[in-house]
Every structure is written in C-alpha cells, then in structure tokens.
Amino acid sequence: MTSASFTLLQATKNSSVKKVIMFLRVSNFAMLLDLLVQITIKFNIKQGFGKKNMHMKIEIWWIGKTFQDFTKKGYDEFLKRIQKFTSVEIVEIADIKGQTNPKSIKNLEAEKILSKLKSDDFLILLDEKGKQFSSVEFADFIQQKDNQAIKKIIFLIGGAYGFDDKIYERANAQLSLSKMTYSHQLIRLIFMEQLYRAYTIIHNFPYHNE
C-alpha cells in the first residue's frame, strides 16, 4: 500500500469515527431529552398539574346504567382527566324495578339516595330550575367550597322523572347547565366535561378559552 493510499484510508476511517461519535452524541442527547420529558410528564400527573392542595372529594351520582356507548366512553375519558386534579368518583344507583308510576319511582329513588347520604355531604342537584354559572363562575364556586373545608360534594343527576320533594328538601344547592332540557343519559357526559373544564381553570391548565 502506498503512502498516499494509507493516508486516504486513515482519513476515511477518522471521518467515519467522527461521524459515529457525532451520531452517538446526538442520539444520547435526544434520549436524555426524551427521558426528561417523560419524567416531567409523570411528575406533573402525580402532582395533578400543580394541584393547589385541594382535599375536597367529588362524587357524581346518577340513577341507572348508561346505555349509550358514546356517552360512557366520553365521561370515562373526562373522569380520568379529572382524577389528575382531585379525588372524584362516579356512583351509580340502581334503577327501580317493577314500578310504572312516576311518583312512586321518584319516591323509591329518593329513599335509596337518602339512605346513602351522610349528614355532612354537600348535595348539589343538577336541575333545570337551578342556578346557572359560566364556566369560570363554576370553577370559582368549586374553589370556594374547597376553601370552606367541605369534605365532599355530591352532584346528583336524577332519573327520567326528576327528583322527589324529599330530595329537594335535603339538597344544599341546585345547578342548571342550561335552560334547555337534556336527557338524563346525555347530561352525564356534558357535566363531566364541564367539571373537567372547571378544574383546568382552577389550575391554569390549558383547555378553556375565554
């Protein structure tokens, strides 16, 4: 091998080595950056995206199973999102069987509901006669209740015939999402989205736009 050929081969090897080293450096940096991103995401999820020490538990109660598949998939998604911010649970109360009279059904539903409630539960009915909030006002309402050291808020969605008078008497507040009437199935999804929106507003998490 001539001196010129050896020099050319050596230069080629050095060039290849440099490329390999450069590739490894870039690759390792990318891997490190990806790792940092993943750690940050996991930390944020664990912390609830900057959770502000909210200790109030939220429960959403409703009557009967959800038979609309798209509704169930939707509220399940928002449930998972809300759980990143606070403690939240869905409680499904079984339908009344063997009754056809609306008044009797509401009365029996009321007995079931009242038997599950504790004296210090803050009960809010989702009712068309309730108070209406903007999304920001609803977020402020939830924050205020947490500041008042309320242990648990229960949002109650009634059955197909609404609420018995005994439930109205026990309720601490009534909330209306609209002057329009929604089905007792669809309102489950609509409310879960609004509850999630409220928590993103409370925590300054990007979702709501004025």
Task: Provide structural commentary.
This protein has helices spanning 3-47, 69-82, 102-116, 135-147, 165-170, 186-202, and strands at 57-63, 88-93, 122-132, 152-157, 173-176. A 5-stranded parallel β-sheet has the order 2-1-4-3-5. The protein folds into 2 domains: 1-47; 57-202, SPOUT methyltransferase, trefoil knot domain (Alpha/beta knot), CATH 3.40.1280. Helix 2 (69-82) links the parallel strand 1 and strand 2. The longest helix has 45 residues, at 3-47. The protein is of the alpha/beta class and 210 residues long. Helix 2 runs parallel beside helix 6 (186-202) and helix 4 crosses helix 6. The model is unreliable at 4-9, 36-42 and 48-53 (pLDDT under 50). The chain is built from 6 helices and 5 strands. The radius of gyration is 28 Å and the shape is globular.
Which geometry do the CA atoms define? globular
CATH class of the largest domain: Alpha Beta
What level of helicity do the residues show?
40-55%
pLDDT averaged over residues: 83
- Unreliable sequence segments: 4-9, 36-42, 48-53
Q: For the report, how would you describe the main beta sheet?
A: 5 strands, parallel
Q: Enumerate how many helices there are, as a single number.
A: 6
Biggest sheet: strands side by side, in what order? 2-1-4-3-5
In CATH, what is the homologous superfamily of the largest domain? Answer: SPOUT methyltransferase, trefoil knot domain
Q: Please name the CATH architecture of the largest domain.
A: 3-Layer(aba) Sandwich
